[in-house]
Amino acid sequence: MIADVAKAAAALFVAAIVQVTLLSQIDVFHGAPDLVLVTLVAVALLRGTIFGAAAGFGAGLVVDTATLQTLGVTSLLLTIAGYWIGRYGETTGRDRTHAPFISVAVVTVLYSLGALVLHYMLGDPVSASRLLVHALPFELIFNLILTLPVYALCRRLFRPPPSGLEEVQLLG
Amino acid sequence: MLLSIALITIYFRESSGGALHQVQSGGATVLRPFEIGADRVSRPFRDAYGYFAGLIHAKSENARLRREVDTWRQQATLNASAASENAILLKQLHFVNSRRFPHGYGSVGADIISQPPSALELQVVIGAGSASGIQKFDPVVTNEGLVGTVVRVAHMSSLVALLIDDTTSVSAIDVKTRAPGSVKAGSSFDHVGKDLRVDEGDELITAGWKSGELSSIYPRGIPIGRVTHVGQNDVDLYKHVKLQPFVNFKTLSSVLVLIPKNR
């Protein structure tokens, strides 16, 4: 468990630094890949709700600190995303091949909507058309491209927990 | 979730010198070496990409720039003559100027070290903060023109709202016709009366007004952009003016923060 926490912390920290320094500079109609979100989805799918929520909170805190944004905004969104995807992984999704892609696609859309609502509630003058019409389609494509390598890497880092069904060999 | 909501609430309600802001400033200082390290590792690759991407348009751009150089050379000769005449006239009139850019301002150069991961915020973090004398609302420029304003300051880093951010509004004037207005989000020149003249291709600069104790946070004379479209109708009170900023925000990598010399 401690090893998993350390590995998740390292993976999300690296993802957050790469995100804020490099990937955010990619700009196709305001759309950029979100490595932190994709990494969080992979971790949450493989390790469940509590782990996903905690990882999301920590990753959001690093992003908000590094970008000097309102502390807690990204944490809140990523905590919910981590918990929700963790729940999907625990119940049905973990062993399905399409699960990471479905998760990333759905979370990318919901994350953008959530961010928009939260910024409106905080009184920030944000442009819904720029986010939802221009940025979101390209962000979705970028994130889906990132999903395969990131999920494969996370799967190597975090072995899936035993399903409870062990092979039994009868003797005699 | 509760912890996140508590963080947002406290951060939102406390002053910029509050405990959470201080913690964030300390955290940003700790993260700074990682961000600078990642930036340095990636810079050769970005430079290589920029070099080859530039080659694609190099030939047509070269021809365009040669034409522009000829035009600007003639303009520079006229300007030099007008400037010397202006200096003589100001001296004869004993004219007292207000603070102007770039005179009366020092500058702090800084690299852009991180960008928010969302399309909602058009803001960047630069690698210089209060330790370098930067304060909130200091103007930020490059040699191309106005970049934006400092909106949050930590010890070793600052958050800059770009000219194209929805929160940014700048008092501006048309260089040729002196028509005043305000540039909103780096894309429109608002509140320009229909009786005033603005033409396509006109350059806009910061107005740098002062009224009693109040004054614009931008000094007069910083280039902002060029007018790309002018229109009006019978219903609206003002003209519809669109502009293209001089600064290319996609390739921005370092900036200058202007700091008044007498602060």
Describe this structure as you would to a colleague.
- The complex is a heterodimer of chains A (172) and B (263).
- Chain A is mainly alpha-helical.
- Chain A has a single domain, classed as Arp2/3 complex 21 kDa subunit ARPC3 (Orthogonal Bundle), CATH 1.10.1760.
- Chain A has helices at 2-21, 35-47, 49-66, 73-93, 99-121, 128-157.
- In chain A, α1 (2-21) runs antiparallel to α2.
- The longest helix of chain A is centred in the C-terminal third of the chain and has 30 residues, at 128-157.
- The model of chain A has no long low-confidence stretch (mean pLDDT 86).
- Among the domains of chain B are: 57-93; 169-245, Beta Barrel (Thrombin, subunit H).
- Chain B is globular, with a radius of gyration of 21 Å.
- Chain B contains 3 helices and 14 strands.
- The model of chain B has no long low-confidence stretch (mean pLDDT 86).
- In chain B, the strands form 3 sheets. Chain B has a 6-stranded antiparallel beta barrel with strand order 1-2-5-4-3-14.
- In chain B, 33% of the residues lie in helices and 28% in strands.
- Chain B has helices at residues 2-13, 19-56, 58-93; strands at residues 105-114, 123-126, 139-141, 146-153, 158-162, 169-174, 180-184, 188-190, 203-206, 210-211, 214-215, 223-231, 240-245, 254-260.
- With 263 residues, chain B is α+β, with helices and mostly antiparallel strands.
- The chains are: A mainly alpha (172), B alpha+beta (263).
- The A-B interface holds A 17-25, 27, 30-32, 34, 36, 53, 57, 60, 62-76, 79-80, 115-116, 119, 122, 124-127, 130-131, 134-135, 139 and B 1, 3-8, 11-12, 20, 23-24, 27-28, 31, 34-35, 38-39, 42, 46, 113-121, 123, 125, 152, 154, 157-159, 166-167, 250.
CATH class of the domain at 169-245 in chain B: Mainly Beta
Greatest interface: A-B, 48 and 40 residues
Distance between the ends of chain A: 37 Å
* Number of self-contained structural domains of chain A: 1
Number of helices of chain A: 6
Number of strands of chain A: 0
At the third CATH level, what is the topology name of chain A? Arp2/3 complex 21 kDa subunit ARPC3
Protein structure class of chain B:
alpha+beta
Structural class of chain A: mainly alpha
H and E string of chain A: HHHHHH
What is the level-2 CATH architecture name of chain A? Answer: Orthogonal Bundle
Shape, principal axes of CA atoms of chain B:
globular
